[in-house]
């Protein structure tokens, strides 16, 4: 909404009475419009209960996170980095429900160059795929669910899913796996305000300084490692020491 | 029910780069101007401030500043015998939305086309003979020359504070600039930006190979700048969050940082945002526009009468409004007749990813700007003899890497698994020592009979209007061009000392999911003959003389450069014709 001047709109009321409902489209004239907090700062993810996943689904996704991004001595794995939390909040929000995307039918399968044409949104796809994964494991892995399988067996299964040799019932399995990889890695590398990349662990791993925004002193320093630690949109943990 | 607003002298459809330029020029004549913009008002301080603009997920991955496909999208197919399907989420290109248009989130790579690009068919036919061109290639001359356009290129560069090194000053070749550029009347308004390590290394290797590397002309300020309108821009901080993002430092040339602060204060200018124009209205003769109809966010329909209509809604939306308003003859590829939708083009882009020894190379890829880079132009346009190669066209190439944002830019060497411990280790090892220019090879795309725009028979937008349908595929000429250029490009990375160089050739079919710039061109092209062009050399509609159509929709084919320098220069050129001639005697500026 902008500096609303109704002068012109009112001039039109000879024809019809202007209703309040025009208010969202605005008129700008005379000066640059400015309202305090007119922008929309991001909202940091709040820790706490799962917003989309059930407990069981969340456990499965956390296990997936640690296979896709395994922990190592220097850097946490996907689970401790918060990738499942990231996906949970994304699926509960705009991404999960394809807000803003074109979702009118008819839904026709095309060639890959025409892009995804699914009638399902990511939230529905995750729910169905996670259920199908458990069904698959229960029937093929001696009655065990996905999280009960040993890590190496989980890896084997994921390789089979990736290569298309295992199909989960009723799921476009290969494309679900691609989505899963993309979402995990986005969670790992996105700003920590979205729930993943906890303590900027992924940024520390590669040496990305995050939201610093000014490298004028460094642009001319060739082949020298940039020395400063990363900063998130929300700052650095040591700027806001934990209350004791 | 439609409500009618008081008449204006001029209505501008879309307040992006060209809309802002036209609004500023025409208000100078004292005309009463209204701009109607589909998206929201946008401003640096409120919409992309420095405390949260550096958000890769929000702006790069979720495309926050762009048009939402829910509002409108296009359908796409490669070939005429396929069924086009809707683009449900953007991929190959990102249509702008909101005040400032693409200027808000572009890179600001600010190029001029080559003199020969404007007389392309004549030039190529003279040099190689008409039979050298593929039979279905529909390239044509623009109806304007580089020399005519030069003063207007100059105006745009001084408006923007473009940072660069001149290569040809009034015919004299300059050391350190692009020796292939057309003669310019004066140097760039600002010196070139500083180059980070990898970009400088590319230049050194290119020089050793015998090329003439030069800094990419940049709308990211190398120093503080005050433009001729009195608007100030600050120095760029090489923040690495440039294209897809707004600039929080007022350092990237955009309508917001160069024109709007002056324009908005004028008493004879007004903007309506969040209002989508759905039609250009004609009188009963069909030869005169009476204004436009638009719909605001409440769904209310308004009529805005005006004497002069400036269509500046970006390539595809320009063509859509012409088709939906019944202006000009719709293109029919089978009969090979009509002009609206004809000669649609994009860009032929490819890349090379290279991996260096992590013990010897630390690139700090996050230190960069949107238009950073060192380029060579030896293989652009007709700068080299195409005779032995059997294709036409070309492009600039360079180390133009703009970022090290980790969701997008964590390349791993070929053979690395896509997940698991090995993936993680490869990301860790390669981040500081791999290079991925992004759009390293920036090739031309010439026009063809079967690449075009029309209205989709099935899919509709929220107003139940047909979506625009894109029919587009790469042709052999462009694929050959790309193979040749990509090989040349890879040689430079080899010479830089990379231990592994991966060529990512552009291959057909055209893939609407892979980003390839937002340089969509054509569909309402300029020219000298109304049978093969929608607008004349002054961008005036042949059919409706009080309608002028801005933007890259006017390009008869696309050159091997980014389009905005040229489309902005054309807007100034058109404004000049309107100011000096049209207003005195409204009517056709040319007779066919
Ligand atoms: C990520 C990105 C990077 C880019 N980088 C570069 C670069 O480095 N160099 C370069 O040369 N070019 C670049 N471009 C392209 C550049 O943005 C465009 O060439 C330029 O903005 C086109 O100017 P325009 O005035 O024709 O259209 P725009 O600037 O796009 O403005 C058109 C305006 O019209 C509005 N509109 C559309 N339809 C309607 C309607 N029906 N009613 C009302 N309003 C409407 C739109 O919302 C928009 O605001 C880039 C583009 C993108 C997306
Ligand atoms: S790179 Fe420079 S111009 Fe681009 S957004 Fe950052 S500071 Fe602005």
Q: In words, what does this structure look like?
A:
With 244 residues, chain A is mainly α. Chain A has helices at residues 7-11, 55-68, 78-81, 83-92, 122-140, 151-163, 173-189, 201-206, and one strand at 27-28. Chain A has a domain at 55-206. Chain A contains 8 helices and 1 strand; from the N terminus they run αβααααααα. Chain B is an alpha+beta fold. Chain B is 21% helix and 18% strand. In chain B, the strands form 6 sheets. In chain B, strands 1, 2, 3, 11, 12, 13, 14 and 25 form an 8-stranded mixed beta sheet that branches. In chain B, strands 8, 16, 17, 18, 19, 20 and 23 form a 7-stranded antiparallel beta sheet that branches. Chain B is built from 12 helices and 25 strands. The chains are: A mainly alpha (244), B alpha+beta (592). Strand 1 of chain A pairs antiparallel with strand 11 (269-272) of chain B, so a sheet runs across the interface. The structure holds flavin-adenine dinucleotide and iron/sulfur cluster. Iron/sulfur cluster is lined by residues 220, 236-239, 241-242, 245, 247, 249, 251-252, 369-370 of chain B.
């Amino acid at each position: 909404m902008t500096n609303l001047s109704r002068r012109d709109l009112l001039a039109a009321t000879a024809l019809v009475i202007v209703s309040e409902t025009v208010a969202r489209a605005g008129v700008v004239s005379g000066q640059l419009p400015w309202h305090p907090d007119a922008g929309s700062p991001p909202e940091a993810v709040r820790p706490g209960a799962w917003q989309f996943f059930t407990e069981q689904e969340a456990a499965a996704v956390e296990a997936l996170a640690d296979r896709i991004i395994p922990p190592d001595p220097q850097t946490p794995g996907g689970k401790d980095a918060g990738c499942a939390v990231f996906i949970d909040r994304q699926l509960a929000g705009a991404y999960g429900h394809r807000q803003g995307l074109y979702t009118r039918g008819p839904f026709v399968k095309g060639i890959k160059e025409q892009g995804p044409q699914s009638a399902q949104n990511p939230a529905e796809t995750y729910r169905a795929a996670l259920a199908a994964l458990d069904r698959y494991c229960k029937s093929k892995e001696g009655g065990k669910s996905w999280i009960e399988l040993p890590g190496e067996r989980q890896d084997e299964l994921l390789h089979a899913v990736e290569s298309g040799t295992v199909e989960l019932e009723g799921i476009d399995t290969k494309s679900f796996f691609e989505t899963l990889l993309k979402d995990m890695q986005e969670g790992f590398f996105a700003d920590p305000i979205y729930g993943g990349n906890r303590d900027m662990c992924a940024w520390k791993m590669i040496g990305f300084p995050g939201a610093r925004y000014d490298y004028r002193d460094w642009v001319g320093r060739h082949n020298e490692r940039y020395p400063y630690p990363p900063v998130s949109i929300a700052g650095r943990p040591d700027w806001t020491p934990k209350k004791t | 029910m439609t409500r009618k607003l008081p008449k204006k002298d001029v209505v501008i459809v879309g307040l992006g780069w060209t809309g802002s330029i036209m609004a500023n020029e025409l208000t100078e004549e004292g005309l009463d101007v209204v701009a109607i913009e589909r998206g929201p008002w946008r401003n640096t301080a409120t919409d992309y401030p420095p405390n949260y603009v550096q958000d890769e997920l929000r702006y790069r991955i979720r495309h926050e500043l762009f048009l939402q496909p829910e509002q409108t999208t296009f359908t796409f197919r490669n070939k005429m015998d396929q069924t086009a399907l809707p683009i449900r989420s953007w991929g190959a290109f990102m249509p702008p939305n909101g005040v400032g248009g693409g200027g808000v989130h572009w890179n600001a790579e600010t190029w001029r086309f080559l003199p020969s690009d404007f007389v392309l068919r004549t030039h190529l036919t003279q040099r190689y003979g008409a039979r050298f061109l593929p039979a279905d290639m529909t390239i044509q001359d623009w109806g304007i020359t580089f020399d005519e356009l030069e003063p207007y290129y100059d105006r745009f560069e001084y408006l923007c504070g473009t940072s660069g090194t001149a290569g040809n000053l009034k015919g004299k070749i300059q050391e350190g600039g692009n020796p292939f550029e057309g003669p310019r009347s004066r140097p760039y308004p600002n010196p070139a930006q500083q180059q980070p390590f990898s970009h400088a290394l590319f230049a050194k290797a290119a020089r050793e190979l015998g090329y003439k590397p030069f800094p990419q002309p940049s709308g990211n300020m190398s120093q503080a700048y005050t433009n001729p309108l009195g608007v100030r821009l600050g120095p760029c901080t090489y923040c690495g969050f440039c294209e897809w993002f707004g600039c929080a430092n007022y350092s990237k040339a955009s309508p917001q940082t160069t024109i709007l602060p002056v324009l908005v204060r004028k008493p004879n200018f007004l903007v309506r945002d969040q209002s989508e124009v759905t039609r250009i209205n004609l009188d009963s003769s069909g030869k005169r526009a009476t204004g436009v109809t638009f719909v605001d966010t409440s769904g209310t329909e308004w009529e805005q009468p005006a004497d002069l209509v400036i269509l500046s809604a970006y390539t595809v939306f320009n063509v859509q409004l012409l088709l939906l308003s019944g202006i000009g003859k719709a293109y029919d590829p089978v009969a090979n007749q009509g002009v609206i939708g004809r000669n649609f083009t994009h860009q032929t882009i490819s890349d090379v990813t290279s991996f260096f020894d992590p013990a010897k190379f630390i690139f700090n890829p996050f230190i960069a700007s949107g238009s950073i880079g060192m380029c060579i132009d030896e293989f652009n346009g007709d700068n080299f003899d195409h005779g032995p190669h059997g294709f036409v066209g070309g492009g600039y190439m360079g180390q133009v890497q703009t970022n090290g944002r980790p969701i997008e830019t964590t390349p791993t060497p070929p053979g690395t698994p896509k997940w698991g411990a090995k993936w993680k280790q490869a990301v860790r090892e390669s981040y500081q020592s791999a290079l991925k220019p992004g759009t390293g090879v920036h090739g031309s795309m010439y026009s063809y009979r079967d690449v075009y725009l029309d209205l989709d028979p099935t899919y509709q937008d929220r107003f139940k209007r047909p979506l625009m349908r894109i029919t587009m595929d790469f042709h052999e000429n462009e694929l050959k061009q790309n193979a040749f250029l990509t090989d040349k490009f890879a040689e430079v990375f080899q010479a830089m000392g990379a231990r592994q160089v991966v060529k990512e050739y552009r291959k057909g079919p055209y893939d609407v999911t892979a980003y390839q710039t937002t340089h969509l061109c054509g569909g309402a092209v300029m020219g000298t003959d109304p049978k093969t062009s929608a607008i004349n050399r002054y961008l005036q509609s042949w059919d409706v003389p009080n309608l002028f159509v801005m933007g890259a929709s006017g390009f008869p084919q696309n050159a091997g450069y980014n389009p905005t320098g040229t489309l902005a220069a054309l807007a100034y050129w058109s404004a000049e014709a309107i100011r000096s001639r049209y207003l005195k005697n409204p009517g056709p500026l040319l007779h066919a």
